[in-house]
C-alpha cells in the first residue's frame, strides 16, 4: 500500500489568510525534516495524488480549506513542479507552487528550500584555471561550469539558462567554462575543437554551435571542420591544431580538476563554491546568485 508521507523540506510554518482572502504557505525559515518510507517508481499522477492528499490532510482540511492540483510539469532533472489552487468551498483563496521528487520521497514547499540545502553544504574551492570566461573578471560572484558538449542537459543550461543569467546579472558575475567529457572520445574531440577555435578568437561562437548541433556532430566528427568553416576560421590552422591533439591534455586536466572538486556528472555548476548539479530551473541559480551578491 502506498504511504502518504513524505520527507518534508522547508515544512510549513503557518498559514496566512490575508485581508482579501489570500492564502500562502510560509516556508524555509525553520526547516524541519520528517522521514517515512515511500513507494518507488511513482507515476506523475501518483505523485500528484500523493502531494494533494498529504497537503490537504496535514495543512488545509483542519482549517476548512481544500487544495487542488491544477497542473504538473517537470522541474529540472529530478523534480515535478505542481501548481496548487487553494479553495474554501467554491471560493478560490489563492494559488501556490510546490515541488516533489519524481520518486515521491521529497516534498519541497519552496524553490528557496532547494537553495538552502546547497547553502548548508561546505563550499568547494574550484580554480578557474586559464579556461574561457565571460563577464566581469573582478565580479563578486564566480560561476564555474563543468560540462560535456554531448550532454543534452548541458545544452539546456548553456542555451536556455546561462543567457538568462548573463542578461540579468551582466558585470556582476564571471562565468567560466571547464570541460568534463563523459561521453567518450567524440566528446573529448569536440572539446579540443572548441579550444582550437578559441585560438582564432571564436571560442564562444564555436562553443554554442556544438551545443546547438550536438546530435549532428556526435555521429559525424567531420562536422567539426564544417563548423569552423561556417565561422570563417582558417581551416588549415584549425585542422593542424585539432589533428595535433594540442588541447587533449588541457581538457583532461579540466576533467581531473572536476573529479577532485566532487563532480560526478554534467552539468555541475559552482557558484562561489556552492554546488548545483544538473540543469536546474533558472530560479534555483537566481536564488544562489542573489544570496551571494547580498553578502
Q: Which superfamily, in CATH terms, is the homologous superfamily of the largest domain?
A: Glutaredoxin
Distance N to C terminus: 47 Å
Number of helices: 10
The ordered H/E elements are EEEHEEEEHEEHEHHHHHHEEH
Total individual domains: 2
Q: Round the Cα radius of gyration to an integer and report it.
A: 23 Å
CATH architecture of the largest domain: 3-Layer(aba) Sandwich
Q: Beta fraction of the residues?
A: 15-25%
Primary descriptors:
295 residues, alpha+beta, Glutaredoxin, five-stranded mixed β-sheet, 10 helices, disordered N terminus
Any overview of this molecule?
The chain is of the alpha+beta class. It folds into 2 domains: 7-114, no CATH class; 133-294, 3-Layer(aba) Sandwich (Glutaredoxin), CATH 3.40.30. 40% of the residues lie in helices and 24% in strands. It has helices at residues 44-60, 111-120, 152-169, 185-199, 203-212, 214-218, 223-230, 235-243, 248-260, 282-294, and strands at 7-9, 14-17, 23-26, 66-75, 79-88, 91-101, 106-108, 133-135, 141-147, 173-179, 268-271, 274-277. Strand 6 and strand 7 form a beta hairpin. 37% of the residues are buried.
List the helices and strands and how they pair.
Layout: E1 7-9, E2 14-17, E3 23-26, H1 44-60, E4 66-75, E5 79-88, E6 91-101, E7 106-108, H2 111-120, E8 133-135, E9 141-147, H3 152-169, E10 173-179, H4 185-199, H5 203-212, H6 214-218, H7 223-230, H8 235-243, H9 248-260, E11 268-271, E12 274-277, H10 282-294
Parallel strand pairs: 1-7, 9-10
Antiparallel strand pairs: 2-3, 4-5, 5-6, 6-7, 8-10, 9-11, 11-12
Amino acid at each position: 500500500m502506498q504511504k502518504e508521507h513524505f520527507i518534508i523540506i522547508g515544512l510549513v510554518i503557518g498559514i496566512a489568510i490575508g485581508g482579501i482572502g489570500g492564502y500562502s504557505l510560509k516556508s524555509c525559515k525553520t526547516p524541519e525534516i520528517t522521514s517515512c518510507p515511500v513507494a518507488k517508481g511513482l507515476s506523475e499522477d501518483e505523485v500528484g495524488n500523493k502531494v494533494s492528499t498529504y497537503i490537504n490532510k496535514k495543512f488545509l482540511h483542519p482549517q476548512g480549506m481544500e487544495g487542488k492540483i491544477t497542473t504538473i510539469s517537470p522541474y529540472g532533472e529530478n523534480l515535478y513542479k505542481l501548481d496548487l489552487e487553494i479553495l474554501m468551498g467554491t471560493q478560490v483563496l489563492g494559488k501556490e507552487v510546490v515541488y516533489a521528487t519524481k520518486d515521491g520521497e521529497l516534498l519541497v514547499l519552496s524553490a528557496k528550500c532547494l537553495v538552502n540545502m546547497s547553502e548548508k553544504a561546505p563550499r568547494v574551492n574550484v580554480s578557474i584555471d586559464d579556461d574561457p570566461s565571460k563577464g566581469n573578471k573582478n565580479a563578486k560572484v564566480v560561476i564555474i561550469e563543468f560540462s560535456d558538449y554531448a550532454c543534452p542537459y548541458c545544452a539546456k543550461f548553456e542555451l536556455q539558462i546561462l543567457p538568462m543569467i548573463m542578461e540579468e546579472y551582466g558585470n556582476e558575475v564571471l562565468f567560466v567554462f571547464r570541460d568534463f567529457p563523459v561521453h567518450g572520445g567524440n566528446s573529448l574531440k569536440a572539446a579540443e575543437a572548441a579550444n582550437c577555435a578559441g585560438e582564432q578568437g571564436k571560442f564562444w561562437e564555436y562553443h554554442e554551435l556544438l551545443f546547438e548541433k550536438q546530435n549532428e556532430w556526435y555521429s559525424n566528427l567531420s562536422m567539426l571542420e564544417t563548423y569552423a568553416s561556417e565561422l570563417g576560421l582558417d581551416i588549415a590552422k584549425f585542422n593542424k591544431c585539432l589533428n595535433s591533439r594540442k588541447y587533449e591534455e588541457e581538457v583532461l586536466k579540466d576533467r581531473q580538476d572536476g573529479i577532485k572538486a566532487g563532480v560526478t556528472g554534467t552539468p555541475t555548476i559552482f557558484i562561489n563554491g556552492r554546488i548545483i548539479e544538473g540543469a536546474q530551473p533558472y530560479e534555483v541559480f537566481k536564488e544562489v546568485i542573489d544570496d551571494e551578491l547580498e553578502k
